[in-house]
Structures are given as structure tokens and as C-alpha cells.
Amino acid sequence: MTREGLQVISSALDESTTAWALAARSGDTDAVDHFVRALHRDVQRYVAHLCADPQAVDDLAQDTFLRALGSLHRFEGRSSARSWLLSIARRAVMDSYRYAAARPCLSDIPDWQLAVERAQPQDLPGFDDGVALLDLLASLPEERREAFVLTQLVGLPYAEAAEVSNCPVGTVRSRVARARATLMDLLDDGGSAHDLAPVEDAEPAVLAA
Hints:
Structural class: mainly alpha
């Protein structure tokens, strides 16, 4: 499928999930079910990227939806339901970090890789079959990896990824551009710059220092 086709699907998904979220505010149980089913995989994938414990991904995804459903009365549709939900997921993960801060660290292995692998769809656009995506993502600094996952894997527009990450749009564009530059270097032997063309748009990123 072309990137233009993926953008159309992503836009349609945002329209549908936002409409379901607004309907769910009024107690429409079918809308609640559609809302949860449509976004469950995106939440799992994003939480898996942020979370250091693969065993906690399902619990954090469930916590995210419980928080969201309890806050639906405050959702007014000013942003897409997906970006609103991923912001809640981010807070759920950060809260889990604070809760676990006093617990001893038993391993230095970046277990988020295993969780991402479990939540990752097959045949991601922009990567050859032989490329180990998780290994490539592991080479990125955390903030750049988050920006890349949100925009290129989850499919959020840059503006909504900025809302989720609580940073300016230009910062997201810079992080994605730098992430892509690193990935293109790693793909030099087996991929091409075309493979990593931005999913959302082709505006030049601001490479701020």
C-alpha cells in the first residue's frame, strides 16, 4: 500500500475513533466497544515502546483505557481521540515509573524490545523484510525513538505527536529527521533513503541543535 493510502486510512481512523469517543460520552456502549477495539493495538505498541517491562504492557494498556473511559466526559474532540488517548497512555507509563522508582533494578536488558516485538504488526511500510526493525530502533536515543514510533509506526501527524510528547512540533520534526538520518546510515548496505520517506508529509524538518 502507498504512503498516501496509509495517510487516508489513518485520517479515516481518527475521524471514526473521535466520533466514537464523543458518542461514548453519552453512554453509547457500542461506541465504547468500537473505540477500544480500534485503538487497542496503537496503545499497546506505544506503551511497549515506553515501558521497560514487557510483562506490564497489557496492564498499562488496560489502565490507559480505564483512565480514558473515566475521563471521556472531558473529551471535547479538539484533537483526535487517538492523540488524546496516547497522551493518557504516556502519563500511565510515567506514573508506573514513579511507582517503581524505589524498587531495585534486576536487569540492564532493554526489555521494551520484546514488548514492541509482540505488539508490532507485520510488513511495516518503509522497511525491507530482512531488516531487524527493533535493532535499528534500539540504536536511537529515547526521545528520537518516541518521535519516530509516534509518527512513522503509529501514524500520528506531527502536530498530534507533539501534543502526546508535550513538546513543540518543530522539536518532533527535528527528532524524526535525526532518527531517519541515523536509520538511513544503518540501512546503507540494505536499504535506501526512499524506504524511509516520512509517512505524514514531506515538509523539511528543522534540525535544531
